């Protein structure tokens, strides 16, 4: 079985370990002076963070997609325990899909969405007003995320939509 891998550069490792442990509901399986890793089974992901001098901090945005209302309620609870403002978008259309979503930004502004997809849409849709996540430093050109700061990921491009 494949496992999704994500690596995020962070400014404060301890603060980020606390945030992600709250979000995932479990502590990291590996912790070093400049690195931590979670080998999660639900969702199945290898998620790593590191704190390196001069390294780019953050990524565009990440997400946890669930398959049921019960899983969505569980993930929403984890968003609350992670310790940051949660933007509850609710039922929405984004990226040609009908979904129910909530958003949160970690201590370094990496934006996360938690969502349950309920079907397809013929419209691309619009993102919500991310003012509640004003600490975000997500890429301004990124799809479905707040445009509140300069891009972190230089390679992100946008034609007539992304995702």
UniProtKB/TrEMBL annotation:
UniProt-listed Pfam families: Glyoxalase
One function term, GO molecular function aspect: dioxygenase activity
Residues in VOC domain copies: 2-117
Domain of life: Bacteria
Entry-linked InterPro entries: ArsI/CadI-like, Cadmium-induced_rsp, Glyas_Bleomycin-R_OHBP_Dase, Glyas_Fos-R_dOase_dom, VOC_core
Keywords: Dioxygenase, Oxidoreductase
Gene Ontology biological process terms in this record: response to cadmium ion
Protein name: Glyoxalase/bleomycin resistance/dioxygenase family protein
Biological source species: Sphingomonas lacunae
């Amino acid at each position: 079985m494949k496992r999704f891998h994500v690596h995020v550069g962070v400014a404060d490792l301890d603060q980020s370990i606390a945030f992600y442990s709250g979000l995932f509901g479990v502590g990291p399986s590996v912790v070093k002076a400049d690195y931590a890793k979670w080998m999660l089974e639900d969702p199945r992901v290898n998620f790593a963070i590191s704190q390196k001098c001069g390294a780019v901090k953050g990524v565009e945005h990440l997400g946890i997609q669930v398959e049921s209302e019960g899983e969505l309620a569980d993930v929403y609870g984890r968003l609350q325990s992670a310790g940051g403002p949660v933007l509850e978008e609710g039922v929405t259309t984004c990226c040609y899909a009908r979904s129910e979503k909530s958003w949160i930004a970690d201590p370094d502004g990496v934006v996360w969405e938690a969502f349950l997809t309920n079907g397809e849409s013929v419209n691309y849709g619009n993102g919500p007003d991310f003012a509640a996540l004003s600490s975000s430093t997500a890429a301004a050109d990124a799809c479905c995320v707040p445009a509140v700061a300069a891009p972190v990921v230089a390679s992100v491009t946008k034609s007539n939509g992304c995702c």
